[in-house]
Amino acid sequence: MTAETSQTLDRGLRVLKLLADTDHGLTVTELSLRLGVNRTVVYRLLATLEQHALIRRDLGGRARVGLGVLGLGRQVHPLVREAAMPALRSLAEDIGATAHLTLVDGADALAVAVVEPTWTDYHVAYRAGFRHPLDRGAAGKAILAARQHPMTDPGYILTHGELEAGACGAAAPLLGVTGVEGSVGVVMLADVVPERVGERVVEAAREVAEALR
């Protein structure tokens, strides 16, 4: 802590992070131990957060993340999309294929930003808002690969015809971005995705990750 920071706000944010990292919630005593403060402080923090619907307490008294965080989370997509657009435009123009940024939304992969190339005669139509299961398509599989190997760089994932007949996909996960789970990829009409495309997608994913840090 420094003179410019708020200890109370810091503790409140730490409470939210602790609750976000557990599926079963935490009691006042558990939070008190993890924060290193007495129970009275925790009660006050929880009461304040509960007033703003950022936490809720179940019948057993365990605190969990509240629905109020969804309203905050909805504002993340526009910010992430804006940060990613330069890299997506460059990728789409360079490869001549539709580029996209995909984020996790529950059990689905959700395309939040899409850029189509300007110079091609034809390309795959892919729209922001398109969603599909995480275990289908290059975008979702790249995210799952990063989950399964969190300490390594999984590189890129290639798929063919999993979401649209005749369309190939290449995607690489966003790595090292706290609070954002997603991937950058391209979709194209081709029998085989050239190796250069995969390497270029990895480069674009790194550019987006840098923009979000």
From TrEMBL:
Superkingdom of the organism of origin: Bacteria
One Pfam family in the UniProt entry: IclR_C
Boundaries of every IclR-ED domain copy: 68-213
Residue ranges occupied by any HTH iclR-type domain in the UniProt entry: 6-67
Gene Ontology molecular function: DNA binding; DNA-binding transcription factor activity
Entries under Gene3D superfamilies matching the protein: 3.30.450.40, Winged helix-like DNA-binding domain superfamily/Winged helix DNA-binding domain (1.10.10.10)
CDD domains the UniProt entry points to: HTH_ARSR (cd00090)
Gene Ontology biological process terms from the UniProt entry: negative regulation of DNA-templated transcription
Signal peptide: none
Stretches assigned to coiled coil: none
Keyword annotations: DNA-binding, Transcription, Transcription regulation
PANTHER family linked to this entry: HELIX-TURN-HELIX TRANSCRIPTIONAL REGULATOR, ICLR FAMILY, HTH-TYPE TRANSCRIPTIONAL REPRESSOR ALLR
Protein's name according to its UniProt entry: DNA-binding IclR family transcriptional regulator
Organism of this sequence: Streptomyces violarus
